[in-house]
Amino acid sequence: MKTEAATRGSGAALASLIIRAEGMLAAIPQSLPLLALRLALAIPFFKSGVTKWDGFLTLSSGARFLFEQEFKLHIFGSEIPYPFPLAMATAAGIAELILPMLLILGLATRFAALGLLLMTAIIQLTIPDGWANFHLPWAAMALALVVFGGGRIAVDALVMPGRK
Q1: Alpha carbon distance 125, 70 (integer Å)
Q2: Is the per-residue pLDDT at 6 higher than 70?
Q3: How many degrees, rounded to 5, is the angle at CA 20 between CA 19 and CA 22?
Q4: In this model, does residue 1 exceed pLDDT 80?
Q5: Which of 160, 141, 163 lies closest to 42 in space, CA to CA?
Q6: What is the value of pTM for the model shown?
């Protein structure tokens, strides 16, 4: 009888501890993980964008080569060359610099995240093997930011009071 009561008592104590710990975790302001998501998504895209340039609006030879020779869209089992490869490289290079900066600032967060989500879809079509390690986490982060916005630690919160 004593061991049964002690087991119930320790079970209740453990449940109470779990409830208190969960309450403390739930008290973390939503803006902190949203800020972390913004940074985590912005960094790899920004780093990639920097590699595409050799100066102001001068595409690097590496970016030119990749978009003209290497990158193919994998659609329905076919490998289709990028249409207008230099225009695509330029657009990608610009977007990979501007959209991450908007995310870091938390300015037009939902739209910047949507742009990176669309870029991730194109990257997935270009490099299908990267879905598990890169594209799926990027898409999940971007989708969360599209849905929840940038949070209170963002310029969006200053520009549009009352919005998250």
Answers
A1: 13
A2: no
A3: 65
A4: no
A5: 141
A6: 0.86
Hey, what are 152's tokens? 């209170």
pLDDT tens digits along 125-144 = 999 999 999 999 999 999 99
Rg (CA), the chain: 22
Digit-coded pLDDT (tens) for 7-20: 667 888 899 999 99
Phi and psi torsions of 34, nearest 5°:
-65, -40
Cβ-defined contacts of 91-95 (< 8 Å, 24+): 92/49, 92/52, 92/63, 92/67, 92/119, 93/49, 93/52, 93/53, 93/59, 93/63, 94/49, 95/49, 95/119
Cα dihedral 120, 126, 128, 129, rounded to 10, equals: -100
Distance from C-alpha of 2 to C-alpha of 139, rounded to nearest angstrom:
54
Give the separation between CA 38 and CA 44, rounded to whole angstroms.
Answer: 11
Q: Are residues 151 and 106 in contact, defined by beta-carbon separation less than 8 angstroms? A: yes
Q: Give which of 1, 116, 122 is closest to 67, Cα–Cα.
A: 122
